[in-house]
What does this fold into?
Amino acid sequence: LRERYNLNVEFSPPSVIYKETPSKAGYGFEAYTMPKPCWAVVKLLLEPLPRGSGIEYKSNKIPSNQMKYKYQRHVRKSVLSSLEQGNYGWELTDMRITLVDGEHHFLHTHPLDFFVATPMALMDGLRNTGTTLLEPLIKVRITAPTEYMGKIVNDIIRMEGEFDTPVSNSVNCTIEGILPVAQSMDYTVRLAQLTSGKAVYSQSFAGYRDCPLEKGKITPRRGVNPLDRSKWILYARGAMRDSLDI
It folds into this structure.
C-alpha cells in the first residue's frame, strides 16, 4: 500500500462481532403525541426465536381507520432499519417482531411520525425483554499426526469448543469441532507451533450461540439512543445533529 499508493496504514487486531437476541417475550410501547403536531402510537411484541432463524416481522390486522396501512408500512420499514443496535450495541437477530396495535390521528399525525415513534417502541421492548449476547462460532477440521491429537483435543476443550470423535489411520488423525471465534482467533499459529507445521487446518462459519455477558463484549452505542426520549425526538425531527452526522 505504501509503495503502490503512498498510503501509510496501521492494522489493528481483529475484533469479534457479537449479536443480540431478546431473552424472553415482551412488549414495547410508545405514544408519541407531543409536541404537536404529531400523533403516532405503536405497540410491538418481541419474541426470541431459535438460533439461525434470523428476523421475522408480522403485523396484526389493524383496521385502516385506526392506523392507516401506509403508517403500518412505515412501522415495518422503521423496525427493520432499527435492528442494528440492541441493549449492548450489537445487531439483533433470531427474533420475531409483531405490530400488535397502533393508532394515528386524522388531524395531528405527520407522515414521518411513525419513523420517530417506532425506534422508541422497539428499544422500550428490548429494555423489557432484556437481551442475550450471542457469540460467533466456526466449524474446524484438523488433520495432524496421531501423536499430536491429545494436545489438540486439550486445546479444543480449553477454548470451550465441542468436537466429534477423532478418526485416525496408521499415520494421521482427523478431528472436526466447533470453536468460539473469540477464543480461537490465533489458533492457527498455535497449531502450527504445536505440530511443527505438520497439521492441516480448515474452518467455516458455523452460526452463533448464547454467550455469558462477562465472556463477551459490550460495544458503545453509535448515535442517539431512542431510550433518551427527548434527545431522540429532537434528533429524529432534525432539530439536533449527532456527531456521527458531521
About this structure: The mean pLDDT is 94. The two ends are 28 Å apart (CA to CA).
